[in-house]
């Protein structure tokens, strides 16, 4: 009877030891895999900082974080790796097979790094408390870097954009805008004055997804709250809308804020408020701004000489008069009806872009 009891005791201890060894190996494999994942994601981000943005400071931050991760990647973690028997190597998702835009590529890799760091932080608590603390600090660094770089990419695209579509209600609303996006449009402002907020939210969200699918910026007219709710790239404010400073507090430093101006005094005030771009117009009288006196080409010439941020001539501009606007000094224009009421928005977009 004593021998049976002893054998049971030995078997129990053996089982527990085996279980402990298996647990330890599993934890090591998790740490190993996520250290690799975080370093790979950071390298992808670092390459864009270096070659796409020429941003040595951000590239250096990425490199330092990769080095920090590497310092924790010990031999005992590496030797626990068992790639042939890892079921995760067979898992994939359609969204991983292609990227819709540079922004989506960067966003995917920021998410990858953040998720990996969170896994490392939690499982490292079972391995090394100092390791876990280091991963927590790195995660906060990555959040800050993401905010900075996504904002920088936004402003870089804004600086390169020549044609700006401001929407108006239409029966085939999304189809018209997608047609314009296919023609090379890279900046869209959602403007729907006389509609309920719930409808605006729904339309704005769908339009943001569509714009980002084509690598275009998406701006909301007048409403920083809706821009925040749908994670738009920014907001456009009129002269009687929310102050720029308050909109900046709501949206953050990395979102785009534009403002309409109709004369040199309004331009000077907008520039002093720190806007990212301005609208210059209306160049011609337009039903979109009923009763508003045209600012004319003289204000376009003034903007050419005095504006210190990207500016878009706007107001009644179409393919019949855009050449005059360009001759007056504009190399960026915003349009509404020219595209929204075009028979072929793709062709119209291409025609307008060719003249800019």
UniProtKB/TrEMBL annotation:
Assigned GO CC terms: cytoplasm
Top enzyme category: transferase
Task: Note down the stretches annotated as region Unknown.
Answer: 1-141
Q: Where is 2-[(2R,5Z)-2-carboxy-4-methylthiazol-5(2H)-ylidene]ethyl phosphate annotated to bind?
A: 286-288, 316
For the ligand (4-amino-2-methyl-5-(diphosphooxymethyl)pyrimidine), the binding residues are: 189-193, 221, 260, 289
The annotated region (Thiamine-phosphate synthase) lies at 142-356
Which residue ranges does the record assign to the Thiamine phosphate synthase/TenI domain? 163-339
Q: Which cofactor does it need?
A: Mg(2+)
- Please list the residue ranges annotated as the ThiD2 domain: 29-147
Q: Which GO terms describe its biological process?
A: thiamine biosynthetic process; thiamine diphosphate biosynthetic process
Q: Which reaction does it catalyse?
A: 4-methyl-5-(2-phosphooxyethyl)-thiazole + 4-amino-2-methyl-5-(diphosphooxymethyl)pyrimidine + H(+) = thiamine phosphate + diphosphate; 2-(2-carboxy-4-methylthiazol-5-yl)ethyl phosphate + 4-amino-2-methyl-5-(diphosphooxymethyl)pyrimidine + 2 H(+) = thiamine phosphate + CO2 + diphosphate; 2-[(2R,5Z)-2-carboxy-4-methylthiazol-5(2H)-ylidene]ethyl phosphate + 4-amino-2-methyl-5-(diphosphooxymethyl)pyrimidine + 2 H(+) = thiamine phosphate + CO2 + diphosphate
Mention one GO molecular function.
Answer: magnesium ion binding
Q: Where is this region: Disordered?
A: 73-98
Q: Where is the composition biased (Basic and acidic residues)?
A: 73-84
Question: What Enzyme Commission number does this protein have?
Answer: 2.5.1.3
Q: In which pathway does it act?
A: Cofactor biosynthesis; thiamine diphosphate biosynthesis; thiamine phosphate from 4-amino-2-methyl-5-diphosphomethylpyrimidine and 4-methyl-5-(2-phosphoethyl)-thiazole: step 1/1
Annotated Mg(2+) binding sites: 222, 241
Q: For this protein, what does the record note about how its cofactor is bound?
A: Binds 1 Mg(2+) ion per subunit.
Gene3D superfamilies linked to this entry: Aldolase class I
Q: Which HAMAP family match?
A: TMP_synthase, TMP_synthase_cyanobact
Free-text function comment from the UniProt entry: Condenses 4-methyl-5-(beta-hydroxyethyl)thiazole monophosphate (THZ-P) and 2-methyl-4-amino-5-hydroxymethyl pyrimidine pyrophosphate (HMP-PP) to form thiamine monophosphate (TMP).
Q: Which NCBIfam families match?
A: PRK02615.1 (NF002727), thiE (TIGR00693)
- What family does this chain come from, according to its entry? Belongs to the thiamine-phosphate synthase family.
Put simply, this protein is called: Thiamine-phosphate synthase
Tell me what organism the protein belongs to: Cyanobacterium stanieri (strain ATCC 29140 / PCC 7202)
Lineage runs: Bacteria, Bacillati, Cyanobacteriota, Cyanophyceae, Oscillatoriophycideae
């Amino acid at each position: 009877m004593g021998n049976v009891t002893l054998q049971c005791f030995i078997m129990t201890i053996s089982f527990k030891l085996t279980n402990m060894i298996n647990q330890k190996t599993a934890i090591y494999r998790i740490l190993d895999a996520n250290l690799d994942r975080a370093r790979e994601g950071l390298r992808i981000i670092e390459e864009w900082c270096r070659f796409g943005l020429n941003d040595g400071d951000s590239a250096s931050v990425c490199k330092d974080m990769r080095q920090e991760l590497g310092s924790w990647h010990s031999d005992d973690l590496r030797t626990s790796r068992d790639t042939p028997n890892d079921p995760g190597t067979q898992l994939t998702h359609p969204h991983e097979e292609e990227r819709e835009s540079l922004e989506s590529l960067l966003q995917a890799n920021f998410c990858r790094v953040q998720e990996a760091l969170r896994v490392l932080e939690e499982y490292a608590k079972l391995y090394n408390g100092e390791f876990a603390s280091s991963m927590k600090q790195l995660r906060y660094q990555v959040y800050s870097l993401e905010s900075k770089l996504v904002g920088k990419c936004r402003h870089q695209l804004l600086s390169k954009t020549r044609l700006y579509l401001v929407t108006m209600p239409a029966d085939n609303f999304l189809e018209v805008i997608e047609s314009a996006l296919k023609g090379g449009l890279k900046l869209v402002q959602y403007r729907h004055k006389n509609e309920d907020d719930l409808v605006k939210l729904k339309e704005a969200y769908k339009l943001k997804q569509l714009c980002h699918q084509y690598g275009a910026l998406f701006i909301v007219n007048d409403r920083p709250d809706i821009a925040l709710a749908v994670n738009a790239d920014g907001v456009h404010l009129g002269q009687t809308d929310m102050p720029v400073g308050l909109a900046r507090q709501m949206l953050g430093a990395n979102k785009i804020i534009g403002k309409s101006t109709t004369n040199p005094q309004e331009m000077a005030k907008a520039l002093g408020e720190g806007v990212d771009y301005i609208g210059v117009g209306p160049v011609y009288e337009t039903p979109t701004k009923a009763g508003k006196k045209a600012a004319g080409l003289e204000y376009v010439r003034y903007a050419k000489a005095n504006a210190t941020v990207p500016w878009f001539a706007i107001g009644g501009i179409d393919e019949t008069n855009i050449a005059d606007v360009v001759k007056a000094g504009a190399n960026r224009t915003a349009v509404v009806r020219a595209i929204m009421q075009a028979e072929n928005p793709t062709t119209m977009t291409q025609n307008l872009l060719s003249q800019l």
